[in-house]
Fold each of these.
Amino acid sequence: MESQNITIDPQTDFKKGEAENLSVPLENTLQRSSRIKNIQTTAMILLFLAAVINYLDRSSLSVANLTIREELGLTATEIGALLSVFSLAYGIAQLPCGPLLDRKGPRIMLGLGMFFWSLFQAVSGMVHSFTQFVLVRIGMGIGEAPMNPCGVKVINDWFNIKERGRPMGFFNAASTIGVAISPPILAAMMLMMGWRWMFITIGVLGIFVAIGWYMLYRNREDIPLTAEEQAYLNAGSVNVRRDPLELCRMAQSV
């Protein structure tokens, strides 16, 4: 018997029996609604800001390390340990990010992540010992872990398969731009207000962006999309919602 490939798209919200066709109309036959355009634009602007701030935070210790070493009496080895402990916490925290993102969605995961990494960034400007710095760097690493998974999830949710290249490039460019502009911006801030207020200012800015993200962004499943909007977002992919028992019978018959 000829096999039949079926892909289940969990993003759709059709009722049982409403979507029996396996194919989705081609994207050139569909129109993007003004609401989808607004959602896409808002999401990408906020993701861009979040990614730039993310790399401002990451670069702050490297830019200010000589001043921090002198004031806190840290060695070069201890500064290296501060950089390493961040990466270690960041890497370990990536492991539960996927399951949590699937359950809670980007709105909560990125909102909370950005809030807490920015909070720890601000607290970095108040530390007075190596141990305190280690703790806040661990907190920053955990907070920043959802950034990239959430960005990819947002693009996957709100752009159909044929138009994801541009937003993905835009999102990736934000990190490169963040790396490029961080040294001059952070150096200027440090010269103007000192390293402590540099950390605090960047942290407060990130908190405001986190609040803006939570207020303005909505997960795809939280918005009642029209059939046309669903079809547009699913354009180019196979989309089907069937009764689980029916799927089991189909799988057994292959």
Amino acid sequence: MITSIYNEKEGKESLLLRQFRDFYKEVIIQKEMIYDSSARTGDDIRNRFAEILKNQEFEAHEYGKGYGLSFYKEVKYVMTALADDVFINDIAWRDSEDWKDDSLEVRFFNTNFAGDHFFDKIDVLLKNADPVSAEIAAVYFLALSLGFKGKYRKRPDSDDLRQYKERLFRFIFHKNPDSEGERLFPQTYQNNLTEAGNRRFSYLKLWAYGIAGSFLGLLILSYIVWSSMTGDLMQIVDSIGKTMG
């Protein structure tokens, strides 16, 4: 049985996936603020992320029924690794070098090897193949689809990123990606803030299947739509948590 962590006040929405979505929305906000204001500093951004992560951890503890906090810490690692990757590698700004020494990973986990460890953790997750980890797998899948590269950033000819996404896809869906599913895999996060005319966000579509309680059904059907040229950050069309018996 696949267990999903829900916030009971919000019905059947996956708490972990909603938290990931909200965190990444803040990544987009902070990126836009860097572009719009040269006064925005790395400390400003890290402090904002720290506030969000603290609130999310409290929420996971409150609604996670014991195991929720350990699940959230895994998602928190993915989120911090993704944000670090963005603010070190994807933005040409004055604080990118300083961010390497004071990354979110260093601040919250006292480590500095997410570029490797991110993929080690996926390997362990897929080796164990525990259905309870389906939501965590979906978070890793989202992070890779949004452009996390880690150690493979320096290996542009490597096929490993595609293989990781396919393996996660098979674990989440219980089937191989077909021609429709393969559209999920290309890099969706190609956004260079130094070229304002080219700023845009592509579409990310994630489908994943799971079980809520004793019901076999659809765990995720979500569309995340990123706005492009206007400065409006993004619209999220989300129908997470549909289930069928």
